[in-house]
Amino acid sequence: MDELLDRVADATPEVTTNTTTSDGAELQGSSFDYLTRPGTDLTAKAQAFHAWAQTRVSHGVFPYAKRLGGRPGATAELTMLDGQRQAGLNFSSQEYLSLARHPLVCAAAQAAMERYGVHSAGSTALAGNVEETAALEAELGELLRMPEVLLFPTGWAAGFGAIKGLVRETDHVIIDQLAHNCLHEGARAATRNVHLHRHLDVDHVERLLKRVRQRDPRNGILVVTEGCFSMDADSPDIARLQALARARGALLMVDVAHDLGCLGAGGGGQLELQGQLGQVDLVMGSFSKTFASNGGFVASHDPAIKAYLRFYAAPNTFSNALSPVQVAIIRACVAIVRSSEGAARRGRLMHAILGLRSALTEQGITVLGHPSPIVPVMLGNDALARVASREMGQAGLLANLVEYPAVSLNSARLRMQVMADHTPALCNTAARIVADALQRARVVTSDMH
Fold first, then answer.
1. What are phi and psi for residue 398, nearest 5 degrees?
2. Rounded CA gap, 73 and 89, in Å?
3. What is the pTM of this model?
4. For the chain, which domains are there?
5. pLDDT digit string (tens) for 234-258?
6. Strand pairing of 412-417 and 374-380?
7. C-alpha torsion angle, residues 393, 395, 398, 402 (rounded to 10)
8. Do the Cβ atoms of 383 and 374 come closer than 8 Å?
9. What is the distance between the alpha carbons of residues 330 and 108, in angstroms, rounded to a whole number?
10. In which element (H, E) is residue 176 found?
């Protein structure tokens, strides 16, 4: 990898010219166009989407469904859908504390495999729990200061399952309009009474709570938000949301997928930073960002909620539990998070985050939100962003493009994901590649108009 880093650092790529004839179709439209296409043929929309996506693939502007060629480290190699390989600085993986190849984590996985094999062979409602499951739940409870923790097979399942399991069709959900897909899907599946509030607007939440409770004094209300929003890297006022929920007889649920373990002096994320550890009604999260594994959890102070969700949250009841290997991996990561090594890794991570944000700003590039492992880099116009993303990959920067409908139209951005193993030098190189790629993309897109 040292040779790869030298190549990337020294690269001064010229403006690339795509030899494939283009009428600009690959820069038009979005995946939303194929979501609700009418017609009697259920496969028609899939075929239309496939044709559109293949057009983008053929022009190198469909940077999705990539295949990782090795560990998700600070550098990596990805294979694109057209078979071309891109290698370079990796800001595209959710590996915030760089634990995927940690020797203690790998040793824990190996020991679990030797003892249990690789399969849980049942749901948590039946016989899918291994002995370490209870230990992991207790350790997470200590980190969160919430004693009742239930594991789920994925983070998405935890978010969806908690809402769908707790909320009846006559109840209400008040949810941030930018909350994660699993939370919105869970709300829509549970009830028609879904009330969106403007992003981070706690005054709007207060008005909705008052209105809903006045109109319906009999049914429940669940308020849903995130600790760190992954598209904008910003956070709500959790203490005020919790106070408002309690004043109206509602529950608050906070999704801590992107901040637990990697932010805060003790790894408690935004809950710790805002003095709310152990103060929130419900907390759910994912292990796939900091804890080197698939899986998710829901935490509360009430053993009845844990027992209820075990049997009434369908993604838990009707899915196999986390494998013994996953449980062991997560336990090892939790132990590191809570140790002095974890604190040191969080320090390195924050140093890299601040370095990348500063380097991008010095290049005149707009960076959104607050310091977190997610650094949203505003690109703007969707067509420009697609070309810029291609140019970055060719120049040795691997970063994820986010475009409409995941964000507003022509508000495309990179979601750069920082790791503890990223050095200041790598961050400076990445910022330069972004700036150069944007400059080349402006030339390419201006020539097409």
1. -105, 110
2. 9
3. 0.92
4. 2-96+341-447 (3.90.1150.10), 103-338 (3.40.640.10)
5. 999 999 999 999 999 999 999 999 9
6. antiparallel
7. -50
8. no
9. 9
10. strand 172-176
